[in-house]
């Protein structure tokens, strides 16, 4: 198992990509424009250890810290990132051979015997809690490949 620490996750959101992801998610263009206006021209400054403030600078990446919309915006954005990661996992033979799978089945009583009606194998590649995903694999080679793919996608 490998845990991913998305340090300063909100700061890593590419805004241009976020607007495209929101549009793909079906968010109306007018609402995206309002959200965009909250972020365009955003400035910040840093308080130093001695209490002195830095000069103002423009913040051109990430979602607003402390904004009530930021968790939702991040989750929509991150869901799209995870979708790309999972697609890449499904295209990699090393990853596919090392996935942890759960088998589910339904049975129905018929003449005193239980008969399998439906068998489904589901790959479990990871777990997500807030912005802290964990990735699982049955082999170190598979886990290493999953790490490489994730880094390639996330950057």
How would you explain this protein's 3D organization?
With 155 residues, the protein is an alpha+beta fold. The protein is 41% helix and 24% strand. It has helices at 15-24, 29-39, 70-90, 93-98, 140-154; strands at residues 2-3, 43-44, 57-58, 100-110, 113-124, 126-129, 132-135. Strands 1-7-6 form a three-stranded antiparallel sheet. Strands 2-3 form a two-stranded antiparallel ribbon. β6 and β7 form a beta hairpin. The longest helix is centred in the middle third of the chain and has 21 residues, at 70-90. It is globular and about 55 Å long. The protein starts with a strand and ends with a helix. The model has no long low-confidence stretch (mean pLDDT 83).
Q: What portion of the residues fall into strands of 2 or more residues?
A: 15-25%
Tell me the count of domains: 1
Q: Tally the beta strands.
A: 7
Structural class from helices and strands? alpha+beta
Succession of helices and strands: EHHEEHHEEEEH
Give the strand order of the largest sheet, numbering strands 1, 2, ... along the chain.
Answer: 1-7-6
- Fraction of residues in helices? 40-55%
Mean pLDDT: 83
Number of helices: 5
Report the principal-axis shape: globular
State the distance separating the first and last CA atoms: 20 Å
Radius of gyration: 21 Å
Give the biggest beta sheet: 3 strands, antiparallel
Show unreliable segments: none
């Amino acid at each position: 198992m490998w845990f991913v620490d998305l340090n300063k996750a909100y700061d890593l959101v590419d805004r241009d990509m976020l607007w495209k992801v929101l549009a793909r998610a079906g968010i109306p263009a007018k609402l995206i424009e309002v959200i965009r206006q909250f972020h365009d021209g955003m400035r910040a400054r840093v308080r130093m250890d001695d209490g002195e403030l830095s000069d103002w600078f423009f913040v051109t990446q990430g979602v607003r810290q402390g904004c009530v919309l930021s968790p939702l915006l991040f989750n929509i954005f991150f869901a799209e990132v995870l979708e790309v990661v999972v697609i890449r996992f499904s295209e990699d033979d090393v990853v596919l051979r090392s996935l942890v799978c759960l088998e589910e089945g339904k049975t129905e009583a018929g003449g005193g015997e239980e008969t399998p009606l439906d068998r489904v194998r589901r790959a479990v590649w990871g777990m997500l809690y807030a912005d802290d995903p964990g990735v699982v694999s049955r082999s170190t080679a598979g886990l290493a490949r999953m790490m490489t793919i994730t880094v390639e996608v996330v950057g």
